[in-house]
Every structure is written in structure tokens, then in C-alpha cells.
Write a structure and sequence with these properties.
Order of helices and strands: EHHEEEEEEHHH
Number of domains: 1
Structural class: alpha+beta
Largest sheet: 7 strands, antiparallel
CATH architecture: 2-Layer Sandwich
CATH class: Alpha Beta
CATH superfamily: START domain
Helix content: 40-55%
Length: 179
Amino acid sequence: MQLTSQQALPVSQAIAWEALNDTAILQAAIPGCESITATGENAYEVALTAAIGPVKAKFKGKLLLSDLQPPTSYVINFEGQGGTAGHGKGQATVRLESTGPNTTLLHYTATASVGGKIAQIGSRLIDMAAQKMAGEFFTAFEQQLAARYPAAAEVATATAEPARGVWARLVAWFKRLFG
């Protein structure tokens, strides 16, 4: 599976970087996340519950951040076990691009492979579940940003609202065409 996209964030690049490295914000934003625990420098253990098609399971995994280029980019290597539901591993590259004093464009590419019952579901359902989880993450992440950095989020939202409406219509059109 490969997932590539970008997301506009209503905060400066420095704030976006800080938030992407804040385990409390991430735990609140990651769908089904129960815990994120630091285990070493740039290493974490994660526990979460996820549903992929008809398979729902608790996963325990490890994250390792590498190639850190603050406040611009890093690579996340991950692996997880979901018991009889299966397992997964992969890598995500995250890059931040400043698009204004209070706006940042987050670019990401994730590749993953799965095994076990999850793999039997089929790649189309797995891709749809991954896209849904990414959408839920960014919605919750933006809510966390607005709660933690309200002044920056208000300024960015006020200046980006017309462009965001066009972007949302364009995304909806692509989803209808290729979804």
C-alpha cells in the first residue's frame, strides 16, 4: 500500500513541527490511539485499536523517527502486531513547507505492508481504511492545533477560508471520479 497526499495546516511551520513531535497532541489525534510512550531517543511504543474492513483489533507497535531535519522533515519507520488479526510495517516521509506566516503545507508519503487476516481483506479495503484514518487524523490534529494555538489557527483560518472551499470541492470531485 502507498498513500501520498498533503494537508494544509493553520499554523506556522515551527508550530506544526512542534505539534508533530508532541505525543499528547498525536495521541489525541490518531484514531483509536490508547498510548504513545517514549522508549528512547526518537523511539516510541504505540497502542491503538483499529478497524480495517471487518477486522478490528488492538495493535501494539513501535515507531522510530529518523533523518530528522527540524523544522522541515523526518522519516517514521513503524511496525505493529495485532495478534490473530495480523501485522504491519512500513515507513512514512513527512515534509513541512511554509506557505505563509501562519500556514504550512504538510506533505506525506507512506508505504506499508500487512500480513495475516488483514492482508486477506484486499488492498482496496485496506487503502480505503488508510485514507479514512488519515482524514480522521488530520481533522483531529487541526482541532488539537486550534485548541493549543488558538491565535495562530484563527489568523490562518480567516485568511485561508476562500482557498480551502475551492480545495474541498476539488478533492470531492477527484473522489467521485476515482473513488
